[in-house]
Design brief:
80 residues, mainly alpha, 3 helices
């Protein structure tokens, strides 16, 4: 069974390692937003438990990925 993951790896690969890291971090931000959205949707049913955990996890993943991508941009500009 081929899921086509090889093509995704080719699309994520950038010209250099900084662009590749940026692309992975953009995917991580998108995954964090999806987890956050799942937490919001589940909080409609029950505001406690797994929905709160998903909200915290999604916001944490998105925040950390955003901070790291900004650091990568700064390093990329300094090393030019």
């Amino acid at each position: 069974m081929n899921l086509g993951l090889g093509t995704w790896k080719e699309k994520i690969k950038g010209k250099d390692r900084y662009e590749t890291i940026e692309n992975y971090l953009i995917v991580a931000i998108a995954v964090g937003v999806l987890i956050l959205t799942a937490g919001f949707l589940l909080s409609i049913l029950n505001p406690k438990g797994i929905s709160a955990i998903l909200l915290m996890l999604g916001s944490f993943v998105s925040f950390v990925s955003t901070v790291v991508i900004v650091i990568v941009w700064v390093v990329k500009e300094l090393r030019g």
